[in-house]
Amino acid sequence: MTSTPRFSSIPAPQSEKRPVSDTRHGITRVDNYAWMRAENWQDVFRDPSTLDPAIRTHLEAENTYQSALMADTKALQGKLFDEMKGRIKEDDSSVPSKDGPYAYGTSFKTGGQQPRFFRTPRDGGPETMLLDGDFEGEGKAYFRLASADHSPDHTKMIWGFDDKGSEFFTLRVRDLATLQDTTEAVSDTSGGGIWNAQSNGFYYTRVDANHRPSRLFYHQLGQPESEDRLIHEETDPGFFLGVGGSTLNDFIFIDMHDHETSEIWLLPANDASAEPKLVAARQTGIEYSLTEGGDVFYILTNADGAKDFKIMSAPVTAPEKANWTEVVAHKPGRLLLGHSAYTNHLVWLERENGLPRIFIRDRQTGEEHSIAFDEEAYALGLQGSAEYDTEVIRFSYSSMTTPTQLYDYNMRTRERTLLKTQEVPSGHNPDDYVTRRLLAPAPDGEIVPISIVYHRDTKIDGSAPCLLYGYGSYGMTIPASFNTNCLSLADRGFIYAIAHIRGGKDKGYDWYENGKRLHKLNTFTDFIAASRHLVAASFTSHDRIIAQGGSAGGMLMGAVANMAPGNFGGIIAEVPFVDVINTMLDDTLPLTPPEWTEWGNPITSATDYAYMASYSPYDNVAAQDYPPILAVAGLTDPRVTYWEPAKWVAKLREIKTDDNPVLFRINMDAGHAGASGRFSRLEEIAYVYSYALKLVGKTQM
């Protein structure tokens, strides 16, 4: 691969080598760039100014370098930003959801970056603005609202915020009569709280020194935080603790989980002094979740070999596993994704043959029906209802060409009421675009779905550039939903593609299991197969494919760059998890112990270590030609720490044999999710898209 003329020849930052060796399972690895990991990383998450000056200087040099090489795209970035902003209804508002005497919703004001929370009388009337995110975040370089949850008696609200990007959330309580915050404040939380039944206290989870939510507390209003009662503590660092509430406000659910095992304890919502009651003890590989159905719990679980899940029921008074009775049977290949219950109906969201649908069962008669759509690829979202005694639920629908439509659905009459269609102020004609679902053969004979969208005028002769997106981890499914941002690429002749690779649950639980741990290589070979199929089908050519992925999808980017660099004309790796072995060996990092079930434990298992070593992007950088690469990260990211991409970029520059530039852009005021405001985030997307356009020579305005 020869040097590209699309970038100037400004020299890249030089990275000092400070070799550190590590021997595990008889294998010695040398890391020249381990010094980029700040020893005081926990302090940096809370106060970025404490970062080692030498590391800060290096990161700032990286930003200077990427800014210089991207300087010729400034005008294009501005144009893309204006286009994407023009597709957003700036003063947009949700359709309020009814709950008791009120209906609650969110809105944005023209020019506003943050959401606002409001309510109206139940059946319509004037809005009362409960919380203005723009006002609360004024003057802060970073500000993210976590949640806003009203109390059962509708007199108060818990809201949470993070102003560092490091996901240490502070909770406050607002009096909804005065619209003023009380003196209550709880720090270092996961971001939300669950009210008790009396509306005079709430439950919340606190993160520990390693940024893991491990302890559940109860806060009584009017008492200092120091007197909050510790309700439950998770002592296994591989499990996270979460808290939720039931629709009837009868129970508090305490959930302990990793990526394949769960355990739930119950508390009565009206007794803060009660001790938690265990539903079913954790059993490796068994997951379950509860929803309340009056005198029963409905339990979604993969127990007893139900790999794609089934629904059971148990009496509220005796929810132990011995009392579980089957309600919805397991059907291989039909993955049950979530469930909810109401007075007369049981509802669940499922996926079969890669497409979602909503199923509804009458709890009295057992009669079932489904809600589905006819497009080749689409996305469904089940919002349900905030109320238990209802016949009406809410769901959303979209496709890669169809803007999001929000419906109310009467489960008894089966009547759909369209409440809202996503407005695209600058205009959108679905007929201008084509969406397809392709099927790519993988090396082992599996078939990998690919969802694509492109402008109707784009020639399908192999000449079109393509942005190929992939994730493929944690069982996450990337829906074929409407994305106004990618239209800026489609309008410039790009094909926008999503590879539904193994590691997600796009084709059921098997699809996930065959893309994790000792099957992880399938994720990467699936993505490579998707790129080859797009070329074989004359949609694009390899030097016109720009691969994109973030977080675990960033690991995918690093892996395919090592494995098949000639298949791609460029790589975009956002907050990339690329230093896999070092991170999985460091059990002090926030996510490491919970992630062992996903990737393996290289500390205790020589097999896991060797397999991980076979694909870890940082450890497999080779003396070969690579396409141009862009890495994007955030300084205060607790999920994928900044030093992973920093080290990867340095090693690429050291070892690779071509002259293609490797750019590293780091947001010094943000974490894993990037900039916090809706328009600030669009600026980051405009930057990434301008990079893709630059690579294929489409920098025309």
Automatic annotation (TrEMBL):
Keyword Hydrolase applies: yes
Gene Ontology BP, a term: proteolysis
The Peptidase S9A N-terminal domain, residue ranges: 16-421
GO molecular-function terms, A-Z: serine-type endopeptidase activity
InterPro entries: AB_hydrolase_fold (IPR029058), Pept_S9_AS (IPR002471), Pept_S9A_N (IPR023302), Peptidase_S9_cat (IPR001375), Peptidase_S9A (IPR002470), Serine_Peptidase_S9A (IPR051543)
Biased composition (Basic and acidic residues): 15-25
Domain Peptidase S9 prolyl oligopeptidase catalytic, chain residue ranges per copy: 481-698
Keywords per UniProt: Hydrolase, Protease, Serine protease
Top-level taxon of the source organism: Bacteria
Region (Disordered): 1-25, 89-125
Record family assignment: Belongs to the peptidase S9A family.
Protein name: S9 family peptidase
